[in-house]
Structures are given as structure tokens and as C-alpha cells.
Amino acid sequence: MANDASAVSDAHSQAVSTDSLADPFTPPADSSLWRKNFLLGAATASYQIEGAVNEDCRLPSIWDTFSAIPGKVLAGDTGAVACDHYHRWEADIDMLASLGLEGYRLSIAWPRVMDTTGAPNRKGLDFYKRLLNRLKEKGITTFVTLYHWDLPQHLEDRGGWLNRDTAYRFVDYADLMSRELAGTVDAWATLNEPWCSAYLGYGNGHHAPGLADGRFATQAMHHLLLAHGLAIPVLRANDPASQKGIVANIGRGTPNSDSAADQRAAHLFEVQHNAWILDPLLKGAYPQELFELWPGTEPLVLDGDLQTISAPLDFLGINYYFRSNVASDGAHGFREVPLEGVERTQMGWEVYPDGLRDLLTGFNRTYRNLPPIYITENGMASDDKVIDGHIDDTQRISFLKRHLAAVDQAIKAGVDIRGYFLWSLMDNFEWAFGYERRFGVVHVDYSTQKRTVKRSAELVAKFLKERKAQV
Ligand code: GCO
User: Which of 376, 431, 438 to probe ligand 1 with, by most ligand atoms within 8 A of CB?
Assistant: First the structure.
């Protein structure tokens, strides 16, 4: 990868004008990002953008229930209207295409496409068929996530991810979707960020369904991963031409000092953030250190489960946002020690592009069978304001440039990375933080639903145009 990347960039360096090199986003001439087959796209998720929660027989999801509970979501926001994408999807796709973005990562709302008996809901299915067909007409590569956290509430009422049966219901859902949508999906991801579903949803209660017990977290994780592993062969059988994978959010832990105890703490941070998911997927075993960190939380695992979970993947989606600086903590193994004087985003997350590079090169060493990687989310929130019709999101522009440089460094160090999706195409419902945190490269005015392209999106579009024009 690194070799052919440099061949392309050499040829390219003569073609790049000095003007483009001077802008605050465009990657340098020797960047692998100039390769035309490096997919550059944007991502969204169903509950965060669609709205229309009561339309066309959609069932309630755990996020409808959770966001209706006072105090769970900032300012009492819910996804009831969100970006109204369910009605504005055509214009939104036109916008995506007009920016020259080559890939679109979206998710399907499970409660929209099946009733409580598991029978298909045609109206919901038709929405995704129209959407995907239009994306294909526009020549956009489609990455579809089956589960981006909006579990049907009726399944939660029967135990949700604590109930092994939910994994089998997920397979029914994956089966239906891949039969109905085969041919319009380039890549299927079973789950988005199982760490968040399991840990935030069942371990500390910050996300839906809001349960808080360490044993719940590990059991929910096991059933999530089982659902993934059981679905992969079904997706392969129904839609052989597409790629199949999963999306994990990964965390970088760095030690607060050189002491052995703090280094161990940083290691344990990454065990619970990364190895908890990647080891069963890629090594067929949970990391034993996880249960030293969280004693007594071993999940119930049946014979053959780990073999199912470690079915080969065509790609691994990686979502990366920030690092955590940690020190040793006798009781829990590690505790976070926020650093002073570092650059942070509106979420309070530290801007730390090296973490992305270091994690990717580390995984490449740890997992011999590491599949090709797509960065399926990376981006930041800022308090963007429209001034005279424009949004100059300078911090985001610099953030994206630096993270794309980190991706380039990882590629040059030998990691097979094939694409990058900005989080997010447009401002949307940021889970427990509601609408206050704006992650989009397109601004959304929630009172009018007007979309305004931010400066960051203009610069990405400019780069893509130049890349396309190169010989
Ligand atoms: C997530 C999701 C996105 C978020 C994004 C910013 O991982 O949390 O995939 O839905 O909006 O990560 O927090």
C-alpha cells in the first residue's frame, strides 16, 4: 500500500498547484489521500437524523423511550424531528453529491422495517430502497450499518441485549435487510460501536436503555458480538458481492507518568476499550485482563460462540475521536487525569491525532489477521454559528487535516486503510447531548431545517474536485 501510494503521489506532485497547497485543508502532495481509490465520504445514523418517529408504522426504539425521561438528554431533546431527513432525504443526497463526497455511511432503523412479529414493514423498507437506489444512481459508495443503537423497544422489554434471544432476532433482521437490499449496498456493517451499546447502555447507564451494572455490560457485549457473528454468514449468503464488517470505536489511553503503575493503567484502559471487542473478533477469545480489571463480570458464553464471533471479516470500521490520559487507581485499575492546557473540542475531548496513528499501527502489530480498515467516523463538535450566510469552522478544518495526516502516516507505516468517513455529514442529534453539539460539515438550523455548507465541507469538496481532475 505504502509503495503504490508514493508512486501516485510522485506523479501527482507536479500537478498540484501551489494555490491548493496553501489552503488550510488540502493534504500535502506526498499524502496517500491523493490516491483516487482512497474512499472519502461522510457518515450519519438513523436516529440522529431521520425524525418521523411515529410515521409509516415505525415502532418505538430504546432511544425514544430513554430521551423522553427527564434529565437523560441535555435540554430534554429527542430524535422526534432531528434533521427531518425522512422527508428531506432527496435534497440531502443532492447535497452530499454536490460536495463530491464519494461514500455515504448510513444506518437502518430496525424499528422502521419490522413489526413486533418480525414481519417486514413495507413502508419503512421502501424508504431505504429509495434512498439506496438514489445513492447508487449518483455513483456513491454505500456503507450500511444495521445497528446504530436504535433497538426496538419491544425487544428491550424482553431483556434487550441481556437476552441471548435478541442476537437471533438480529439475525432475522439482517436476513430480511440483506435479501431486500442486496445489490444496493457496497458494504454492510453489523454493529456500530458495541463498546458504547454495552458499556454506556448497560454498564454506566449514560445511554439507552440506561442500565448500570458491570455484569450487564459484559453480557450485553457478548450477545452483541454473537449477533454480529451469526449475521455475517447470512449477509454473505444473501448479498455475496458486498463487503461485510463491523465498526468499533477505539480509545487511546496514555500514561500520566513514566511510572510502571501508570503505564499499566494506560494498558488496562485500552484493554477495556479496544481488546474487549477486537480480541474476540480477531483472536476468538476475551482478554483475561478484562476480568482482572472488572472481577466477577465474566459473561455466560456457550460452546462455539467465540468461533462464531471470530468469523473472518472483509473490513474493520474504526471510529476515533480523542485520547484519555490515565493514572493508576488501586480500586479500578485506572482513573482519568484530564490534561491542562491542551486543545479541546466543544465536547471537551482532547484533539490528539497521534492517537489514531498509534492505535492503527499498534493493531497492525497485535492482530496478524487485521482486516482492511476504513475509518468509519472521525470529526469534532464546535459551536458553529452562521454569520452572513457562512460558517467558518476553522478548528474543524485543522482537526480534519491533522487526522487525515495521521491516517496517511499509518498507511505509510504499512496499515491497509482504504477510506475515511467524516462524522458527520450534517449537525444532528448527539445522543445524551441533544442538539447543542454540532458535529456536521453542514450546519442545520433546527427551527427551519435549512442546511448551510460549512467552510470545512467546501474545502473537502475542493480537494475532491482537484483529486478527481488529476491525471
Ligand atoms: C458514536 C456514534 C455517533 C456519534 C459520534 C460523536 O459513536 O457515538 O457513532 O453516532 O454521534 O461518535 O459522538
Answer: 431
